[in-house]
Amino acid sequence: MSQARMASNRTGVVAVLVEAKYEDLELWYPVYRLKEAGCRVLIAGTGKPEYQGKTGYVCRPDLSVQDLRVDDIDGLVIPGGYCPEKLRTNPDALDLVREAFSKGKVVAAICHGPQVLISAGVLKGRRVTGYRGIWDDLRNAGAIVVDEPVVVDGNLITSRTPDDLPEFGAELARRLGSG
Questions:
Q1: List 86, 112, 126, 160, catalytic entry
Q2: In the 8-state DSSP scheme, what is residue 62?
């Protein structure tokens, strides 16, 4: 448990990654669901002052992935859209995901978000789901693909599409929130 979570003794600190053309619902729904659950949410970008979602909604990150320390968070959320295509080519984002995963932090991804997990090399032998269009990629990375709204395998949480956000958000809140 991180010092931030121990200090509050209630809820977690969660980082949500962002890049250009993120899927608006898959970023904002978890942000607000986690805040409702009492979490402290930090949005981390790759260095720009703002990012536009697929529908044009602007997100201004709190910090960059380069400045985010894994020991200061309890969980990490990767939204879908075109955002994962950019995140998966950013060495700092991949290092962050690998470190969070290896330290047992909750790592969650929805829709195309698991593409980042593929590039980080953390899926071999893990049960996951994601957008149907990346299932072959997930299998080729050694994952066991399951067609369910939310799949939990240890510290890994994955989901398929925006339609699954209620289940995805509930699991995030259960694992990282106050109840």
A1: 112
A2: S
Tokens 């380069």, residue located = 66
Judge contact between 54 and 21, C-beta under 8 A: yes
Q: Which residues contact 69 (CB under 8 A, 6 or more apart)?
A: none
Contacts of 91 (CB under 8 A, 6+ apart): none
Cα torsion 171, 25, 87, 66 to 10°: value is -70
CA dihedral in degrees (130, 110, 82, 133; nearest 10)? 10
Q: Distance between CA atoms of 113 and 100, rounded to whole angstroms?
A: 15
pLDDT digits (tens, 9 = 90+) for 81-96: 999 999 999 999 999 9
Residue 99, Cβ density class (10 Å: 0-12 exposed, 13-18 middle, ≥19 buried): middle
Please give the CATH number for the structural domain made up of 3-176: 3.40.50.880
What's the pLDDT tens digit per position in 16-75?
999 999 999 999 999 999 999 999 999 999 999 999 999 999 999 999 999 999 999 999
| b/e code 132-163 from CB counts within 10 Å (16+ = b) | eebbebbeebebebbeebbbbeebbbbbbbbe
Residues 22-32: pLDDT tens digits? 999 999 999 99
Helix axes 165-176, 24-36, angle to 10 degrees: 40
Whether 177 is catalytic: no
